[in-house]
Automatic annotation (TrEMBL):
Molecular function, one GO term: peptide transmembrane transporter activity
Keywords: Signal
Signal peptide start-end: 1-24
GO cellular component, one term: ATP-binding cassette (ABC) transporter complex
GO BP: any one term: peptide transport
Source organism, top-level taxon: Bacteria
Protein name: ABC-type dipeptide transport system, periplasmic component
InterPro entries: Peptide/Ni-bd, SBP_5, SBP_5_dom
Domain spans labelled Solute-binding protein family: 72-427
């Protein structure tokens, strides 16, 4: 009942907002300009901070690419070899690649860009790099201190994008954005606007659309309005209510893509209410995942009882049973953990009520609706959950200072195309990760991950993946809720739209605009 009411109310609010804001006439977009809107902000020119915007806008490129299946492909490196017992990567660069300022791509420029990236936060720091050097004009050698299995995939991460030397100030700060992509930056108005134009000297297949712009739209309803009114051609990260409304539009198409991202509850495993498995299992059993998936997310079949969805087939456990809400079993587990109901139904232990705070954020607009549903479902156990929407930065901040109790997040396990890179960063130590576990200590998992860093035998690695996936599903350092369906809306004048499940590129260069 609750999820249905929540969805109906949200749909009504969205409908009223759009009805109030829509004007009588619809602006026509220029025939040579593609306008995109999403919730993300380009707060800096630095790839370590906002590189995901610049790779999506196809300004910046990486040495390694990936296809929709997560297979690694040549990027700016046309080939590579791995030697010295998986500690040395030799990368051979594409010939005749030009930066947007006219400078050539050389091994020296690649080495300089990667060395600069090492001075900023990013997955390169996890790899234990010993040296990066140009051995000839077209060859870069990267030496690691020890084997690191996902290193090739790390070179596909946006923070490793290659910039021309002239992009940097003497102190390493990025002051100009000279990349090698099919589009070059022409306007940067932080944090809300990035505009690009076609780069005619691009080394690959030339783009068709002459100009494109990215506009930050903080609310899902606002982005829905933009595409419905003709102010935008493509909008990303829509909530279910906006999707329902846009499905009625004659000039907008909805694209729904299951991606390697999961909705999870981040748990402070050191909190006295959350530090035992029985309690975490009880909280998990109390969630009506099927109702949330169908009635709130509008994505039946995505309820999750494990961390990794079916798009991550190497990590997904196909044989696990579908998750089912079981309030009676949840109550039994809570009683075994020492919780008793007071006269008003609130759970009490040692004189303390079971009260927790969950935060979430607006970039993924469905999260607040899901958090509110979980709040109601846990209330049936006698748990008081206070839910609030914060800036996304509150989650890593709360992780760092220990103040975070619970957070509902949509974790992208494919920021690095091989999920092992993200999993190693998140799950290898009790410190956890900003978007991973918090204060979780499991020696078996840590030992398993340490072995996976260096395991070269594919059969052994496959078994290790299955063991780790099962261990996480059982020990619940975080609580899985749903696998993630990306909802986008595309104007019908756009041809060739295809969502990148790894969220590395908007693929503008593959599209064209029809004169409708």
């Amino acid at each position: 009942m609750y999820p249905t009411l929540c969805k109906s109310f949200s749909t009504l609010v969205s409908a009223l907002l759009i009805s109030l804001l829509l004007s009588a006439c619809q602006p026509r977009q220029p025939d040579d300009l593609l306008t995109i809107s999403g919730p993300f902000e380009a707060v800096s020119l630095a790839p370590s901070k906002s590189g995901y915007v610049y790779t999506r806008m196809q300004i910046l490129e990486t040495l390694i690419n990936t296809n929709d299946a997560g297979e690694l492909l040549p990027g700016l490196a046309q080939s590579w070899e791995i030697g010295d017992q998986n500690r040395r990567w030799t990368l051979h660069l594409r010939p005749q690649v030009t930066f947007h300022n006219g400078a050539p791509l050389t091994a020296d420029t690649v080495a300089h860009s990667l060395q600069t990236a090492l001075g900023h936060p990013g997955p390169l720091l996890e790899a234990g790099i010993d040296s990066i050097r140009a051995v000839d004009p077209d060859t870069v050698v990267i030496q690691l201190q020890q084997p690191y299995l996902p290193f090739t995939a790390v070179l596909a991460h946006y923070s490793t994008a290659i910039l021309a030397p002239e992009s940097y100030a003497d102190n390493g700060d990025v002051v100009e954005l000279y990349g090698t992509g099919p589009y070059q930056l022409t306007e940067y108005t932080p944090p809300h606007k990035v505009k690009v134009s076609r780069f005619d000297e691009y080394w690959g297949t030339p783009a068709i659309i002459a100009h494109a712009e990215y506009l930050t739209g903080h609310r899902s309803e606002s982005r829905a309005l933009m595409v419905k009114s003709g102010e935008a051609d493509i909008v990303y990260n829509l909530d279910p209510a906006s999707v329902d409304l846009l499905k009625k539009s004659d000039h907008v198409q909805i694209d729904s893509t299951l991606i390697p991202r999961s909705i999870l509850i981040k748990v402070n495993n050191a909190h006295p209410f959350l530090n035992d498995l029985k309690t975490r299992k009880a909280l998990s059993l109390a969630i009506d995942r099927q109702g949330i998936a169908a009635n709130i997310l509008g994505a039946p079949g995505t309820a999750a009882s494990q961390f990794f969805g079916p798009t991550m087939h190497h990590w997904h456990l196909a044989g696990l049973p579908e998750p089912v809400q079981d309030l009676e079993q949840a109550k039994t587990l809570l009683a075994e953990a020492g919780w008793k109901q007071s006269e008003d139904g609130t759970l009490i232990r040692n004189g303390q009520p079971f009260q927790l705070r969950m935060i979430t954020y607006a970039n993924r607009p469905e999260l607040m609706l899901v958090a509110t549903a979980i709040q109601a479902q846990w209330a049936e156990l006698g748990i008081r959950l206070d839910v609030s929407m914060e800036n996304a930065s509150a989650i890593p901040s709360g992780h760092a200072d220990g103040s975070l109790q619970l957070a509902l997040i949509a974790r992208n396990f494919a920021n690095i195309p091989d999920p092992l890179g993200t999993i190693l960063a998140d799950f290898s130590t009790a410190a956890g990760g900003d978007w991973g576990p918090m204060n979780w200590n499991n020696a078996k998992a840590f030992s398993l991950l340490s072995a996976m860093k260096t395991e070269a035998d594919a059969n052994v690695l496959a078994q290790q993946r299955r063991l780790l996936s099962a261990l996480l599903a059982e020990d619940l350092p975080m609580i899985p809720v749903s696998f993630y369906v990306q909802q986008s809306a595309v104007a019908k004048r756009v041809n060739g739209f295809h969502f990148d499940p790894f969220e590395r590129s908007f693929r503008i260069a593959e599209m064209n605009l029809a004169n409708l």
